[in-house]
Design brief:
The chain is α/β, with parallel strands linked by helices. Strands 4-3-2-5-6-7 form a six-stranded parallel β-sheet, with helices on both faces. Helix 6 links the parallel strand 6 and strand 7. The radius of gyration is 24 Å and the shape is elongated. The N and C termini lie far apart (54 Å). The relative contact order is 0.09. The N terminus is likely disordered. Bound molecules: nicotinamide-adenine-dinucleotide. The site of nicotinamide-adenine-dinucleotide has 26 residues, from helix 1 and helix 5.
């Protein structure tokens, strides 16, 4: 059922006796820290909790431990206002909150495609065994369907039944780079609940979002559903988005062999409102801490449930996506006239600038980033690669310590025979091809995101190659 926000949901009194529910966010990574800060901004009393002491120390100090536009100012404002605190003690969290949002990571397991639920298990059990009064535990992490039921069993095992602790699930759709806006002004809120009490308390915990919408003459749709649907909504949404990206990347592969231009194809099909033009940019493919591991975990779970066939197409979606990374290597070999053997291209003796390590612009997240993976494979093929990203350098260094990192875009491209633009940061999109041309050894560019003005670069004397675009002169 879809309930508009003004449908008169009854607000329950929070168990703490506070006028508005007190909120805790367990796990203060990209998701949990953003939520903690934004919900304090909405007027809630908020506690952020993490087992990572260094992360909590930074947050306490007014520093966001990752790059997210606009979040730092809100953090400092709400720390000063006294509505927001960060702790590393489960006791404090258990004693404080009415609603505990579980925001811990659910990465891909090392031994297969399934999600690693060990962080969910340890956070829930550690919290549950310390709860002394009624509370609601709400999962926000992306999880395989069935997890909420399992969390409910864990809670039943570790809490006194007299307390009436309940579980709910509310998947999260924020996009890194737009996270503040997405949390304060979401497209929709989805909650999986089993009782009116959980529904009402969760409504009260989101009332700030609905109230803000009302002042701006907007409505935030609220979908109230069961546990399984709430869990599935998130992975279904990510499966759809990944499929859309891989669809256009598959079209790019066809354009490459048929001589078409996928950017024009995407524009033309995107005018059909049934298709739409968003998420239809061909390039080096999707990455990050969500889409790749979510589509894999979804397939693994469907297999366990006996419905593996239904999601077999996601295997192809994954393969199309990974093939795009190899395409950059192939293009590099072509442009640099290097031989390709059974082990791939030999790029030894070449100098390549790799611009971008973050999986997308306005983020420092390099988890499963195509850009960083491509930089690493160019280096593995023997090239002397200089890597630069406006925000992702620290994470990239930690993930790929053997790569050579440059201080700036100019530093990375100086002396390069080939420039690869791998993340569509504004700094790269708006770079002056004339000025860069004066720094490089050869004017060869691979536009891994189709984000550069090909005509402008060609006019400045560059040999330009995009993804799924014809060779100039063909
Ligand atoms: N990042 C996104 O854009 C996004 C969007 C929607 C959903 N999600 C989902 O949200 C979840 C978290 O993602 P993230 O990107 O914030 O991950 P993250 O790795 O940035 O953060 C996870 C945090 O959980 C902490 N943690 C681990 N075990 C803990 C424990 N026992 N108690 C308390 N904290 C603990 C870690 O120290 C870390 O700070 C994942 O399931 C992800 O799929 C993420």
């Amino acid at each position: 059922m879809t309930i508009p926000y003004h449908s008169g949901n009854q607000l329950v009194e929070p168990p703490s006796g506070a006028p508005r529910p007190r909120l805790a966010f367990v796990g203060t990574g990209y998701l949990g820290a953003t939520y903690a800060i934004c919900f304090a901004e909405l007027g809630y009393d908020v506690l952020g909790f993490d087992i990572d002491e260094a992360k909590i120390a930074k947050l306490r100090d007014g520093q966001v431990p990752f790059h997210e536009p606009g979040l730092g100012e809100l953090l400092r404002k709400n720390l000063t206002a006294g509505r927001l605190r960060f702790v590393t003690s489960y006791e404090e969290v258990a004693g404080f909150a009415d609603v505990h949002f579980i925001c811990v990571g659910t990465p891909q397991r090392g031994d297969g495609m399934n999600a690693d639920l060990s962080y969910v298990e340890s956070s829930v059990t550690n919290l549950a065994r310390r709860l002394q009064r009624r509370a609601l535990i709400v999962g926000k992490s992306t999880v395989p369907v069935g997890t909420a039921e399992w969390v409910e069993q864990l809670v039943a095992k570790y809490t006194d039944p007299e307390l009436g602790i309940e579980v709910a699930w509310s998947p999260e759709f924020l996009q890194e780079g737009f996270a503040v806006e997405d949390v304060l002004r979401p497209d929709r809120i989805v909650v999986g609940v089993k009782s009116d009490w959980a529904n009402s308390l969760l409504y009260a915990a989101h009332k700030g979002v609905f109230d803000l919408a009302a002042t701006e003459d907007r409505e935030v749709p609220l979908v109230v559903t069961d546990f399984a649907t709430a869990e599935l909504v998130k992975v279904a949404a990510n499966a759809f988005l990944a499929t859309k990206i891989s669809f256009i990347n598959a079209m790019a592969e066809i354009c490459e062999v048929a001589g078409g231009d996928v950017t024009q194809l995407a524009r033309a099909i995107g005018y059909d409102p049934r298709i739409g033009n968003r998420f239809l940019q061909a390039g080096v493919g999707f990455g990050g801490g969500c889409l790749p591991k979510d589509i894999r975990a979804f397939q693994a779970r469907a297999q366990e449930l006996g419905a593996g066939e239904a999601l077999r197409f996601l295997h192809e979606v994954d393969l199309v996506n990974l093939r795009r990374r190899g395409r950059v290597l192939q293009l590099a070999a072509e442009l640099l006239s290097r031989p390709s053997g059974p082990a791939g291209p030999d790029l030894s003796g070449t100098r390549i600038a790799a611009l971008g390590t973050a999986f997308k612009p306005n983020s420092d997240d390099v988890r499963d980033s195509p850009s960083l993976a491509i930089a690493a494979s160019l280096a593995k093929a023997g090239a002397d690669v200089r890597v630069y990203d406006p925000q992702g350098m620290e994470n990239a260094r930690a993930a790929q310590p053997a790569l050579m990192y440059a201080e700036s875009m100019a530093d990375a491209v100086t002396g390069a025979e080939l420039v690869c633009v791998l993340t569509e940061w504004a700094e790269f999109r708006n770079a002056d091809p004339q000025a860069l041309g004066a720094l490089v050894a050869r004017k060869l560019v691979i536009d891994g995101r189709n984000c550069l003005d090909a005509v402008l670069w060609a006019r400045a004397g560059w040999q330009y190659r995009g993804m799924g675009r014809p060779h100039p002169g063909r």
